[in-house]
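Title: Comparing notes on inverse folding

I've been comparing how different people in this forum approach sequence design from structure. To keep things fair, I'm posting one structure and asking everyone to reply with a full sequence. Here's the target:
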């Protein structure tokens, strides 16, 4: 079984082209202004215009209001909304109903208890993304993309009624180990294909996608 790969934090046409040419299954566009990878709806529209339909386009938002979601959905032909904040199950259900789009709920993980918390969303969300939870004392921590990994063994043997992705500190060098331990069949990378936050490296994108294809 192949492992799907998502390149997140795409913020330039060059990064999008590298992801497409490398065979990415998903690209992620971040609509969270504090992030160095953030794009505006206008920028995202231009990037998405060059991405073929076979590559799913994902909008990452953090506790976004309806007006923000409406603006994003109007500007970009999306396949998924990635909810990376503290959205409640009720909020997730309302977003799905109001915007008619699939949602991927992010579950931030530091312990088995965090993974168990995903159960409240498993009949509502269309996908999960398990990412590392930033420590409370981490300065300038973002909701994601902090180059942190969690204990992949926490996911070993888990079974969910919806597809899920693994994220958090992944790169070409550790991807095979992460997939073997966690059992992931889809993976997400941000910092692991960058030279610095917000600056994607096409060679690193290619190496990560090659590693995913080899699994």
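Reply #1:
Here's my take.
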């Amino acid at each position: 079984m192949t492992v799907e790969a998502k390149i997140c934090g795409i913020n330039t046409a060059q990064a999008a082209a590298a992801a497409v040419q490398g065979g990415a299954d998903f690209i992620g566009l971040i609509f969270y202004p504090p992030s160095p990878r953030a794009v505006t709806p206008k920028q995202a529209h231009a990037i998405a215009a060059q991405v073929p339909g076979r590559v799913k386009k994902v909008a990452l938002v953090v506790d976004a209001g309806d007006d923000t979601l409406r603006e994003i959905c109007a500007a970009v032909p999306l396949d998924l909304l990635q909810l990376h904040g503290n959205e409640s199950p009720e909020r997730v259900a309302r977003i799905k109903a109001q915007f008619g789009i699939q949602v991927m709920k992010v579950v931030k993980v530091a312990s088995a208890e965090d993974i168990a918390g995903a159960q409240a969303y498993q009949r509502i969300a269309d996908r999960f993304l398990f990412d590392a939870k930033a420590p409370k004392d981490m300065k300038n921590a973002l909701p994601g993309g902090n180059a942190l990994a969690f204990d992949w063994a926490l996911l070993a043997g888990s079974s969910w009624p919806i597809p899920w992705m693994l994220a958090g500190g992944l790169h070409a060098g550790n991807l095979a180990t992460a997939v073997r331990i966690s059992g992931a069949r889809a993976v997400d990378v941000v910092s692991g294909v960058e030279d610095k936050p917000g600056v994607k490296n096409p060679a690193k994108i290619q190496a990560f996608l090659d590693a995913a294809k080899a699994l």
